[in-house]
Amino acid sequence: MIEILKAILFGIVEGITEWLPISSTGHMILLDEIVKLNVSEDFYSMFQVVIQLGAILAVVIIFWNKIWPFGKKGNRAPLSENGIGAWIKGDIFVLWFHILVSCVPAAIVGVLWDDLFEELFYNPTCVALALIVFGVAFIIVETKKHGHNAKINSVADITYTTAFLIGMFQLIAAIFPGTSRSGATIVGALIIGVARTVAAEYTFYLAIPVMLGASLLKIVKFGLSFTPMEAVILVVGMVVAFVVSMFVIKFLMDYIKKHDFKVFGWYRIVLGIIVLVCGFVGLI
């Protein structure tokens, strides 16, 4: 029962921090320093990634009509007026091609050097530094962008070049935990002129193949030899992450219509300093 309660806590933290630009991986690493799951190191390494599948499902459900590329209803760009083409949503296929372009840099690096980066950078000090650096970046970018009109005001306006540039920013998060995948892509998108709401929406879409690919990679490396307790812990974590994500995604989309991301930048800086201090005095 204690381990299940811990899994619930991990699911709550994942569901909140995956979508807010404050680093889910960083928070999971820090949480592990405080609340240890009674599992093997190999299982935990897999768990902290695969638990994201619950969060992915929330995105799929909330944005289903905007990401499912088949069906006549609401088809604004059919390939043809009749036949099979009338069931294919051309604009959504283009969106997915853009998303795949954004995924290429992180996918290549993740497949080749995932274990190396995990060994080098998955520790409280690196997490704290990444939290602070990108916290400062949020504040600077939002300050400079204040009062300036965005060049890209809808997801449909994102070009292949823009998609690739966003993918390069996402690559930073793939290397340094604590950066935040959503944080890196949002900062990058804002820098190149993407509107705040569009940047957030695009990073939700981008999470689907990125997190699905990372989860499958971890499962393949770990194998399917779960103990009954490990299976329960994983399922509980994913279910809780899904439920919490449903609320957090809707909250964030409403929040950024009226506010900027500076509050998340300040949060990252404060948390990063606390982590550095705690590490210095030996609390973590």
UniProtKB/TrEMBL annotation:
Keyword set includes Transmembrane: yes
EC number from the UniProt entry: 3.6.1.27
Per UniProt, subcellular location reads as:
Cell membrane
Source organism, top-level taxon: Bacteria
Show the catalytic activity. di-trans,octa-cis-undecaprenyl diphosphate + H2O = di-trans,octa-cis-undecaprenyl phosphate + phosphate + H(+)
Q: Name one GO molecular function term.
A: undecaprenyl-diphosphatase activity
Where is the major localization of this protein? Answer: membrane
Question: Pfam families recorded for this chain?
Answer: BacA
Record flagged with keyword Cell division: no
Q: Where are the transmembrane segments?
A: 7-31, 43-65, 86-108, 120-141, 153-176, 206-226, 232-253, 265-283
Miscellaneous note of the record: Bacitracin is thought to be involved in the inhibition of peptidoglycan synthesis by sequestering undecaprenyl diphosphate, thereby reducing the pool of lipid carrier available.
Family membership noted in the UniProt record: Belongs to the UppP family.
Record function comment: Catalyzes the dephosphorylation of undecaprenyl diphosphate (UPP). Confers resistance to bacitracin.
What's this protein's name? Undecaprenyl-diphosphatase
Which gene underlies this protein? uppP
